Amino acid sequence: MPHERRARLALLVLALLALSAILAFMTLGARGNWGFVLPFRGKKLLGLLLVGHAVACSTVLFQTVTANRILTPAIMGFDSLFVLCSTVLMALFGSTMVAGLDPRLVFAGNVLLMVGASMALYLWLFGGEERSLHRLLLIGVVFGIFLRMLAEFVQRMLDPNEFMVLSDMLFASFGTIPATLLGIASAMVAGVTLWLMPRLSRLDVIALGRPVAVNLGIRWRAEVLAVLAAVSVLVAVSAALVGPVLFFGLIAASLAHLAVGQSAHRYLLPAASLIGVTMLVGGQTVLERVFAFNTALGIIVEFAGGITFIALLIGKGRR
Fold first, then answer.
1. What parts of the sequence cross the membrane (predicted)?
2. To 10 degrees, what angle do helices 78-100 and 103-125 make?
3. Which of 71, 139, 150, 212 is the most exposed place for a label (fewest CB within 10 A)?
4. What 3-state class would DSSP assign to 172?
5. pLDDT tens profile 235-276
6. Domain spanning 51-318: which superfamily?
7. Whole-angstrom distance, CA of residue 44 vs CA of residue 230
């Protein structure tokens, strides 16, 4: 079938691009002892792979259950919750004590809190059959705005020096992922990925909408809650590793739809993951080897993501 051949060819091209970006990241500008260079860059590479895969896949999954290709998990207030947690932590303990905390403990606390809060919201909103995703999205927007305002209120009471430290913590940084967190983050992302693999056909049915999915035998409430739980874990891991990221997943998901030309998740999820990895690894390579760290990858990614979001809105409006 032509559509199948196009999707497979797109995955092959994207895989080659991702491998090229990885090879360039690991070898360009390398001098000295390779026994030191490869493990040092390998840890940074693993962090970029985890974040690129997690953010891209979480966005595709969220767009599937919401049946909307311009939404991202950030609309549910995940990033705002992360900002509030970091702000309260800084207000209670101060920058000196926060810097001395075990990063694995902070990471686990952030992930557990974000996943717990999101699942409590999901279970409450889906407590009855009359609850809808539209209500979930509306309350998620209000929830995110409330958390953001609460975090800003606490930030106004911080010492200026501690506020500067907090601002640095909250800025998405793809080049300083703590190596001590890679083990637990890899296990969580791998667990979610393995859980998703045998459910790709169910995701295709869910994408058809609730009435069709229910008629085809899908337990809508249970399946949607399970997918949203997977989204919560992926978003929590990426936010805890690099900080809040608003529009990066939107770019990866949009380009994946354009590349494969269809909505089958056996092609869409791998394509989004490969695009996310290529963007982060390739962007970080250019940042380090061409611009010599004179700019931040997070700024470039968010700027491009904002333009993509506006373009999608304009396109939806014209249709």
1. 45-62, 74-93, 105-126, 133-151, 171-197, 267-287, 293-314
2. 160
3. 212
4. coil
5. 888 887 887 776 788 888 888 888 888 888 889 999 999 998
6. ABC transporter involved in vitamin B12 uptake, BtuC (1.10.3470.10)
7. 24
